[in-house]
Amino acid sequence: MGCVNTHDDVPRWSSYVAIGDSFSEGLWDPYPTDPDHQRGWADRLALVLNDRRVAAGAEPLRYANTAIRGKLLRSILVDQVPRAIEMRPDLVSMVGGGNDILRPRADIDRLARDLEHGVVRLREAGIDVLLATGFDAKAGMVAVTRSRVGVYNSMIWSIAQRHGCHVLDLWGMRSLQDWRMWSEDRLHLTPEGHTRVRDAALVGLGLAPEASDWDTPLEAQAPTPAVRRARENAEWARTHLVPWIQRRVRRVSSGDTRTAKQPELSPVLRGGEINAEDRD
């Protein structure tokens, strides 16, 4: 079965569950009315799907998001996939493996086999699946993972083709090559980045994007002076890199004490409301 492409601007899915790690949880894209809670591309996608359904006279979308920052792929498959199947949604976005690939000894073949096992379980339950390729990291801390991400991406495309999945092609997004799309930690997107990924997800689902220029790169800016760049790199290392390394040494995750922000299928939220306690 080939990849599904609907070419229909009225979404057929009446329920959607996002599962994964910090990328799908939505770091760092806080709700304007409640900055303690994160929005992100998946919440933004759910809102568009809901509004298009309502505008077409269909019932509103029900949405859940069980993604939690720091989760490895195995945790996503063991904890989140069964819960998603229990909810019996029409659509699940499953994005994971990025945290695994940050580990130097990541087994890409094993990750792909595990991912495919999760896809098979979802598809056998009659659920449409949206996968995502990894970012094309050409610079920064994660640049050393570029070759591993590239191999993993090729496997994701093959998995999608075998099982009739949709694909959110992050690797191909030109706009994400601009650091202005990335937050201060250089690992997660800004609100603008999440908005553009939302449109890429719509395209991956065979729907029209909200903005026609969703992947148009930003206008070029003047190069950052070397002294300022060095100062910013030092501040980033002190604020983000060192704590990340310390967590790896202690074998703890930023998501160890967190719960899913929207664990049940519910009406789509528009502000900073939240259906579960989101605690540190």
TrEMBL record:
Residues 18-195 form the SGNH hydrolase-type esterase domain. InterPro entries: GDSL_Rv0518-like, SGNH_hydro, SGNH_hydro_sf. SUPFAM superfamilies: SGNH hydrolase (SSF52266). Signal peptide: none annotated. It holds the Pfam family Lipase_GDSL_2. Residues 252-280 are annotated as: Disordered. CDD domains: SGNH_hydrolase_like_1. PANTHER family: GDSL-LIKE LIPASE/ACYLHYDROLASE, PUTATIVE (AFU_ORTHOLOGUE AFUA_2G00820)-RELATED, GDSL-LIKE LIPASE_ACYLHYDROLASE, PUTATIVE (AFU_ORTHOLOGUE AFUA_2G00820)-RELATED. This is Lysophospholipase L1. It comes from Paraoerskovia marina.
